[in-house]
Amino acid sequence: MAQNKYSTKERKFQHLTIEKRAQIEILLRTKMPKSQIARMVGIARSTLYNELARGSVVQMDSELRQYTRYFSDVGQRVYKEHRESSRPPLKLIQAHEMRFYKRMRMFSLEDGRKQLARYQRLSNNIIMTFLGMKSPNQVLALYHGIM
Fold first, then answer.
1. The CATH number of the domain where 55 resides is what?
2. How do the pLDDT tens digits run along the chain, 147 residues long?
């Protein structure tokens, strides 16, 4: 027997758009209560408070007093940064790391060490995006140049 009536509602979560963030910023400047802002924008009150924590910045007035203000562009930037850092690493990077172990045929410990040293010497000249399109050897040379 199939159940026709469910006790829970289907949830339809969506990420906040830049337009909704701008609407929140404008309504906050009119000193409207936060629960009313959440209703007008069409989001949960807890979502509004999370967004305010994400996009709020400490400012200083002319009398050097600090106050907190929400900016929609800051909220959007922090949201994008968090989304980018939450994604798993690219499979290409994982494949690059596994390439050495797939080709390696180690006959002794010394042979394994020689193969690993050769592989590191070759792979440290490969340009990597997370190093600003530089190879590890180039980054190391820049580091030694500063020291």
1. 1.10.10
2. 566 666 666 667 788 999 999 999 999 999 999 999 999 999 999 999 999 999 999 999 999 999 999 999 999 999 988 888 887 766 655 555 566 566 667 778 888 888 888 887 877 888 777 777 888 888 888 888 775
Last residue of a domain, one of 86, 118, 138: 86
For the chain, list the strands marked E by DSSP: 56-60, 66-70
Q: Which residues pair with 128 in a beta bridge?
A: 134
pTM of the model: 0.53
Q: For residue 115, which of 139, 91, 99 has the smallest C-alpha distance? A: 99
Q: What does R_g of the chain's alpha carbons equal in angstroms? A: 26
- The parent domain of residue 39 ranges over 18-86
In a domain, 55, yes or no: yes
Angle between helical axes of 45-55 and 72-86 (0-180°, round to 10): 90
d(CA 117, CA 29) in angstroms, rounded, equals: 61
